[in-house]
Amino acid sequence: MAGLELRAIRKDYGPVAVLKGVDLSIADGEFVVFVGPSGCGKSTLLRVIAGLETVTGGAVTIDGQDVTRVPASDRGLAMVFQSYALYPHMSVYDNMAFALENMGVAKPEIDARVRRAAAMLRLTDYLARKPGALSGGQRQRVAIGRAIVRDPKIFLFDEPLSNLDAELRVATRKELAALHAEIGGTMIYVTHDQVEAMTLADRIVVLNGGRIEQVGRPLDLYNEPANLFVAGFIGSPRMNLLPAGVDAVGALTLAGRALAGVTPGAQLAGEAVTLGVRPEHVGLCAAPEADATVAVDLVEQLGGETFLYASGQADLKLTIRLDGQVGVGRGDILPVRFDRARLHVFDAAGRARPLGLAPRSPA
Amino acid sequence: MTGIARLFTARRGVGRLHWTDWVSYAFLAVAVVLMFGPVLWLVLSSFKTPAALLEFPPTLAPVAQKEVRVEGYPQPLPLFSVPMEDGTVRQLAQVRRVGIIAQMVDPASPAATVRVPVDKRTPVREVAFAFENYIEPLAKFDFLRFLGNSLFVTVVATLITLVINSMAAYALSVYEFKGKSLAMLGVIGTLMIPITIILVPVYLVVTEMGLVNSLWAVILPGAATPTGVFLLRQYMLTIPRDLIEAARMDKASEWRIYARIVMPLSLPALAVLAIFSIMWRWNDFLWPLAVLTKSEVHTLQIALNAFQGELQTQWHYLLAMTVVTLAPVAIVFAFLQRFITTGIANTGMK
């Protein structure tokens, strides 16, 4: 088990820069998830850590040791591939034993370790089978088993659940969380699925365009996104991002109307900003208190919750999440109000700005 | 068994035979005769005596004229059936022939001879296998040694070819290095140079190395075939990179990845190359003829050539030994043909 340090990692493929200077430190035993849209460099970053890609610049340190130039086979890490990459000509047992044989572990020790891992992953009955005779979920467990028998310094997961169907994905996600709780290793996990990121991670690293946008605990990213990208990326359905302005006295205006009680500050006066509000922080209200009036375009009744997709004047598009079942239909006109304490304001550069909230009037 | 029966009675629909069924079966029958006819004829002819081989019109089966020993004559006499004047047909042995009259004798009563016009009698034939066609060359002409030489060349050369070619193909398919495409181009380029062009320079090299009249002179020059490298490389490109990377993560050395991961997964392509190599080596004629001049190092193909003299050809030996030469390749093919079909399909080679 070990900590990892990345310093100014750069990776270019010819003229294309995939990683543009990544700094990150991961503590021993931490479960870190790299998340981002496709092409953001998250898989490349994982492969750099694994040693399967060389870096153009920067340094990788594991346990205080610089391993930037150390080949993958000597870094002592284990990786679970998206395709699982099980050796098709070997039995499940041999697949798991292969790394141990390469490390020169004694036969009885190999046997003990493989059987322990197989028991942990409920694979004992399948040890003699070839990967081709296993289901997707079983193959996935073999791939994980192959990693854990080695007792590696760090576990690397490259979108390990993306080839499973939705139900199995949820089940395997829980197993992974349980596995981390049980063996407690340092784990780095790449995914584009933010639900996996939110549920598994101790810390999430949001990547975009080869750079780290924000690093933090899942709820911190959710509650306090540092910029527009993270705000839009984390959360499902995504946060409503509304074009807004700041008037001369520093108060927020939405569609030309001042939003009472929200004053981002005079230094933004006259600038165009973006107002962010999550769907669950938009509520129905009485007409006089409304921040906006919208017409419902689409209603999704999920039983436990209801999603409304609505539009207002000046191209205002809102997604609204309401608890329970709501008797609203298409075409209904609704006055809505934003939860003042949960609003986010982003300046023209996309950075989050503090809200100058007026003290609440005693209700 | 039912599978074979179904195969041979397959038809387009149920009920009566459609005309396309007739055409298909006729075509298949012609194809079978065209492909297997000559081979069958070769095998049957290899059992014929020299006399039967030269007979006209030729026969398909190895038949020979029946001969009988008749009391009072030292040599066995050929037997003919002769229609007699009283209408009966008797089997008589020919003592001698004078002009158009044959002097014949009844084997049952050898005292009296009968004179018969030659166009009246017809030879009595029987099926006879001339096994001496096989036994004599194998024993007298040391064909077993040639068979051994051919086997040695084929097996050793194929093993070396598989090892060297797969290593080259591994490097050319898995690694990224400067000049990789140039190396590949060079390999493909040499595909276009036939052996006849480089015969003389290669011969000079082999002579300088003192390998003439050694089987290694046949084995070594062709060990690294561009065809093999190309075929294996194309196949190895289809092995997922993830597997090789997974093996690297599993602390496997490059040699171990080659031996434990890539080689087993390339088995279909290796089988195809093995079959090709066996056929090339076994049937190779020109190069062995050039470098193997002493008869004790001759391979089967050159030894066969020895039966074809300037003045006369010993067809009965030639045919028999041709069958001996064909048999191993046919057996290899029979056992490995399923690899050829899957392997060739997978390598994209036609």
Automatic annotation (TrEMBL), chain A:
Pfam families: ABC_tran, OB_MalK. It is found in: Cell inner membrane. GO terms for molecular function: ABC-type maltose transporter activity; ATP binding; ATP hydrolysis activity. Keywords: ATP-binding, Cell inner membrane, Cell membrane, Membrane, Nucleotide-binding, Transport. It is a peripheral membrane protein. The keyword Cell inner membrane applies. Residues 4-234 form the ABC transporter domain. GO terms for cellular component: ATP-binding cassette (ABC) transporter complex, substrate-binding subunit-containing; maltose transport complex. Gene3D superfamilies: 2.40.50.100, Nucleic acid-binding proteins, P-loop containing nucleotide triphosphate hydrolases. Belongs to the ABC transporter superfamily. This is Sugar ABC transporter ATP-binding protein. It comes from Alsobacter metallidurans.
UniProtKB/TrEMBL annotation, chain B:
GO terms for biological process: transmembrane transport. This is Sn-glycerol-3-phosphate transport system permease protein UgpE. Residues 147-336 form the ABC transmembrane type-1 domain. One of its GO terms (cellular component) is plasma membrane. Gene3D superfamilies: MetI-like (1.10.3720.10). It comes from Alsobacter metallidurans. The keyword ATP-binding does not apply. Belongs to the binding-protein-dependent transport system permease family. Its main location: membrane. It is a multi-pass membrane protein. It is found in: Cell membrane. Coiled coil: none annotated. The chain crosses the membrane at residues 22-44, 151-175, 182-203, 215-236, 257-280, 315-336. The keyword Kinase does not apply. Keywords: Cell membrane, Membrane, Transmembrane, Transmembrane helix, Transport.
